[in-house]
Amino acid sequence: MDYQLYFKQQPDAQGFFGKFGGAFIPPELEKSFREIDEAYHDICQSHRFIAELRDIRKHYQGRPTPVYHAERLTRHAGGAHIYLKREDLNHTGAHKLNHCMGEALLAKYMGKKKLIAETGAGQHGVALATAAAYFGLECEIHMGEVDIEKEHPNVIRMKLLGATVVPVSFGLKTLKEAVDSAFQSYMADYETAIYCIGSVVGPHPFPLLVRDFQSVVGIEAREQFLEMTGHLPDTVCACVGGGSNAMGIFSGFINDPVQLIGVEPSGRSLKYGDHAATMSYGREGVIHGFKCYLLQDEKGEPAPVYSIASGLDYPGVGPEHCMLRDESRASYVTASDQEALAAFYTLSRKEGIIPALESAHAVAYAMKLAKEMKRGSILINLSGRGDKDIDFIAEQYGFGTP
């Protein structure tokens, strides 16, 4: 593949990244998604839209977020130097606001009155509720009952921001079911609302749209790392559920001789229903209107999945990640619940940074890799802060070993 032309070629006009992606949607939604695609391709070339989004990122979100050399974590792990792209310092505490502000600005451009979305860990829900408040739009967030209980601080934040939180009580009551519920709501209200998908998943154009809005992470990180060190990192590492934070930072290095690694959750074990390691154990399938690698049961239906991190327990994965894996441009590995927990406590104690459980998966793998590499550098996308997880962690696991 010619990576010099990568962003002009991927995805193609039908929304496919190689054989993955597309738009497998009901006929009544085809016109609506086509309008979103056309509107996005119009505004992404508009100086006025770009200028407004840049102003929001600088003066409202607090971008650019810094790259930080984690010296004490480096010494603890031993080996390669570890750096963190601090998306936990982005307004609302995670990378999600990067695409939510863009999606809400797009909705405003299209004359929509309402934003509808799903959320797992609650970070996308909080970010979208924030964007809705900023632009004066209605906001409806669908969230599984299991995640509502687990991520209670983010539920309170969404409600304080004025969003309606819709509990999802069917199936496993987690992220996959929240997406199902949000899609149903959108189908009933697509003329006045827009469905703001929370990752690089879903029907075209959302994998493209979310990647483009998240690419600010990689663009910043590449420039910052070069300025700090005079060279590029050897490895860029990020957690992967749907894959938005990973695609955001990967985008900045796709054309460079840099190893790209996505870290998925191996959960409690590699038994059926105990993990969400899609790239390692999934096979080709269709979910939520797009084709990707998918964890499936014997009937070909999406399998039950699990992760200690609510934002990672999704049976599918972004189609662009699937293509990058098949092209051997990116590698996908796993970290378990216990490894993520250990990394959560370690980063908190060594650097005074409490990471989201999602981000802790990337930290866990990077610490192992640093020791194996012995030298060089690893840049982790620290996609979010752990405020949302601290009640759950303290109740279930305590405060770790001082």
3D structure, described in words:
The chain is an alpha/beta fold and 402 residues long. The chain has 2 domains: 155 residues, Rossmann fold (3-Layer(aba) Sandwich); 216 residues, Rossmann fold (3-Layer(aba) Sandwich), CATH 3.40.50.1100. The chain has a 6-stranded mixed beta sheet, sandwiched between helices. It has a 4-stranded parallel beta sheet with strand order 7-6-5-8, sandwiched between helices. Helix 3 packs across helix 5 and helix 6 packs parallel to helix 8. The model has no long low-confidence stretch (mean pLDDT 95).
Any descriptors?
single chain, 402 residues, alpha/beta, Rossmann fold, 2 domains, six-stranded mixed β-sheet, four-stranded parallel β-sheet, 16 helices, 18% strand
Order of helices and strands: HEEHHEHEHEHEHHEHEHEHEHEEHEHHEH
CATH class group of the largest domain: Alpha Beta
Helix content: 40-55%
CATH fold type of the largest domain:
Rossmann fold
Low-confidence runs of at least 5 consecutive residues: none
- Widest β-sheet, arrangement of strands: 3-4-14-9-10-13
Number of domains: 2
| Number of DSSP helical runs | 16
Structural category is: alpha/beta
DSSP strand (E) fraction?
Answer: 15-25%
Q: What's the overall geometry?
A: globular
How many angstroms separate the termini? 49 Å
Instruction: Please summarize the sheet with the most strands.
Output: 6 strands, mixed
| Overall CATH architecture of the largest domain | 3-Layer(aba) Sandwich
Concise account of the structure shown:
This protein has 402 residues and is of the alpha/beta class. It is 45% helix and 18% strand. It has 2 domains: 16-58 and 96-207, Rossmann fold, CATH 3.40.50; 62-94 and 215-397, Rossmann fold (3-Layer(aba) Sandwich), CATH 3.40.50.
